[in-house]
Amino acid sequence: MVLWLLILIPLLAAPLAWMGEQWSRHAARWIAIGALFIDLLLALLLWSQDQWFQDPGQGAWLLESQTSWIPLWGISLHLGLDGLSLVLILLTTFLGLIAIVASWTEIQVRVGFFHCNVLLALGGVIGVFLAIDLFLFFFFWEVMLVPMYLLIAMWGHEQRRHASFKFFLFTQAGSLLLLVAIIALALLHQHAFGRPSFDYADLMGLAQKNEMGWWLMLAFFIGFAVKLPAPPFHPWLPDTYTAAPTGATVILAGLLAKTGAYGLIRFTIPLFPDAISEFAPIAMGLGVMGILYGAVLACAQTDMKRLVAYSSISHMGFFLLGAFAGTELALQGAVMQLVAHGLSIGALFMLAGALQERLHTRDMRQMGGLWGVIPRVASMTLFFALASLGLPGLANFIGEFLVLFGSFSVQPFLTILASTGMVMAAIYSLAMMQRAFFGRQRETRIEPDLSNIAFGTLLLMAVLQVWLGLYPRPVLSTTMPVMATLVQQTPPSSNLTHPPSKFLPSSNSFTSHVSAP
Amino acid sequence: MTLQDFIALSPILDLGALSIVTMLVLAVRRHHATIALLSFLSCLLTLATLPWAATSTPRSVTALLIVDKYALLYMGLLLSATMVVISLSYRYLKLHFIEQEGVEEYYLLLLLATFGGLVLTASAHFVSFFLGLEVLGVSLCSLIGYLRTRRHPLEAAVKYLLISISASTFLLFGMALLYFESGSMTFRGVGRVVEMAQTVPGLWLGGFVLVLVGIALKLGLAPFHMWIPDVYQGAPTPITAYIATVSKGAVMALLLRFATDVEALKIDALAHLFALLAVSSMVTGNVLALFQQNVKRLLAYSSIAHFGYLLVALLAGGSAAAEAVTFYVVVYCVMTLGAFGVVIVYSSERGDAERFEDYRGLFWARPWLAAMLTLSLLSLAGIPVTAGFIGKFYAIAAGVDAGLWWLVLALIGNSVISLYYYLRLIVTLFADEPAPATIPQGQAVQSPQAAGWTAVFSLGLVASIILLLGVYPGPLMEFIRDSVSNLVMVVVQRP
């Protein structure tokens, strides 16, 4: 029931926010904030059930809810919550609040409808993180698409039409491939047991030792990789991230990318362990390709939002590398990377949006010397640029470090290549700072600096970055049981170049080490 | 003919009798609302006889007709769609017929066309097949040209007439060939020859292909689709909706029964032919729809593509195919009525609202209407929460189950293409309103017209069905499985 509340609160608040526009311009914003805040509190309440997360290796759901839906096809309304989904739901509600704050001044027309769409999209995202019936999962997966599309198409910047179409077509193509694979799995179940089923537990390991398993895995991978996005499925991303309004970009980069990542960890890897063990090196290779490609292109951008967008590709490459490394350490790092990336990229897009609102351009060639004009924006950008380049002590560092650490034993060469991405991250992040905020001051007019609300929000995100950077245990220990189960299910990669070294610390000792006061 | 036969046949007899009653009333009292109400009630009454008729199914009534749950299901669909069309037509016709110039026959023709459709759903014999098709076709032809003072409807009517005649000639020649080879005019008799001979006689194959061409012409499958966009655009919009749903639905019901009874898919050549038709319809429909600037033409091309998807489901064969096709036809009828319903309601006496420009910013002017169109379009595009998604799900499932990987991939690729033009229309709905300056001089800014309560009610019903089927399709799925099981079972228990 609590799980359904988590999904339904934003969905039901959505029409309310739309109607709220009639009362006052800010009513819609406050309704949206209220709904998400209640959701956040609910999720925190679940998180505070400490004893749940004490038992590592337990793969069962912490909370479960199942109701029959379409019995003919073996489809049920099956929701399940475990550490991984909980962490991501916390991130969703938090970033949802951030997105609303980020669009506080930017969105001035059709405010009600904007927030209606934001809430619908977030409801879909939360549903994605909770559904463990594959049909239901796909349902939510698509629910978030249309509102997202409208957000981009209606409130976006120049080129919004083009960008929104690209976004929708790319993701829908991936989704339909995913749908076919899901249906094929359900029918495999029918051939084996006489009735179709879309349930996660029923389908687990079904495609084992099956020639079709490989193809189905590939369809699952592509479906999720489009959202992530991993090259070569990324062409929609730079245009979309750039054209979307700030609030929508925060959701796109902070959350929609995470749904793809979640899909990979939750479904692709456990459902096809055999095929994955063959495919893992390729996936890791794609991850490294993403890291380098994103970083190189980010270095070449003059548009600030595009730069951040490409850096996002680079960061999600680290996730892909870690997720398919098959070690618990790397998986933990991958999840940490999701959370950290959500926080840093959300803040960076918010700042880029704030700059655009003030200067009416995103072109960094026309900026310069802004530090003296808008110090709040400048200082926060500096902080999050440092976070994004992986400064130790901040959350991104933990994620990337764990990923590299965990992957090295599996694919040393790829890992070394990946680590050069961190160097390039330093180049583009600092170049961005240099071009926009230092140097000769071009603007003579004094711009209004960040409002207190926006500044406070960014400060809060910065505090979270530092907190998770110094003390990542809350996230790591919450997701550890899930990751441990995942590693047990997946047989070790068949073409390991090196056996795992005995000298590497196990993840348990690492997390406890980190958590030591 | 026993009493049971009459009971089984009661829907067809009922509608026939009520058409005559309507005609007689028409002779006595020419009144638009009365006749509209009477025709609506005729459909409702006929609909009410369906459960009664179901008590004596499955039943062959003479060699011509077979009344089984499958037929009754389609009859229910056709009658409901007709009722929606009638309720949408009332205001539309009032806008176009100001004086007493004979608007009432429209409803009579609608009833007769539906009567033909009912016969088609139950026919198991070439004679009933042909008679049903002709009743449907001739009535439709007059309906398409009903707005006789305008140019486009007349042009469309002539076009439809020519197409109808050529379809009939193809059919007749094909039937003659099949009869020559099999000595039977019943569908099963035609199929039995192939089963017994173990080989496919060349003339039989030729005959089947000719019959298929006739059917494809009626369904508008590519490459026999040329007439569809013109007729869709030219016909009065309620009739366009009628062609898209009732006429095509009835022919599809017939095609499914014909193909199942003859076991056409067991013959490789025919299976390939069906696959070819499916792919060419999908591709032609979707690619040509990309370039349309007219909403009615866009929907016309999209309907060509949708029947391509339907053929993919049909090709799966067996009960899965029958279920998937039937479900898809139901869903397709509902969402098409939704989309055309908006066009009908939005039309004014100056003409149909069919250009993209007319829909610019509709969402801000008339939000409910725009929401309805958006819902229908999303459903046509197969986005979840709408019925169209479940329909597409069913079609893909049938294809995957039969291992038709290439066709399924073609279906997916085409769905993605189709998204582009649906989104293009949706984006237009949400675009900023046109500046007042763009409205030509001399025309007062048109005040939003009342949609008429019948139209509002039926559109509301259609919208809720789209959502209900999208969220809770279980009961309908079970009902359809129960109904079509009979269709396939009969084949298995072939004497």
What features would you highlight for this structure?
A: 517 residues; mainly alpha; 2 strands; 3% strand; disordered C terminus; B: 495 residues; two-stranded antiparallel sheet; 19 helices; globular
Please give a structural write-up.
The complex is a heterodimer of chains A (517) and B (495). Chain A is built from 20 helices and 2 strands. The model of chain A is unreliable at 493-517 (pLDDT under 50). In chain A, 71% of the residues lie in helices and 3% in strands. Chain A has helices at residues 2-20, 27-47, 83-102, 111-130, 134-143, 145-155, 160-193, 200-203, 211-227, 236-243, 246-271, 273-299, 304-323, 328-359, 375-388, 395-408, 412-437, 452-470, 473-489, 507-515, and strands at residues 63-70, 75-81. Chain A starts with a helix and ends with a helix. In chain A, 62% of the residues are buried. In chain A, helix 13 crosses helix 16 (395-408). In chain A, strand 1 (63-70) and strand 2 (75-81) form a beta hairpin. Chain A is mostly helical and 517 residues long. Chain B is mostly helical. Chain B contains 19 helices and 2 strands. In chain B, strands 1-2 form a two-stranded antiparallel sheet. Chain B is globular, with a radius of gyration of 22 Å. Chain B starts with a helix and ends with a helix. Residues 437-448 and 491-495 of chain B have low confidence and may be disordered. The interface between A and B is medium-sized, with 30 and 27 residues.
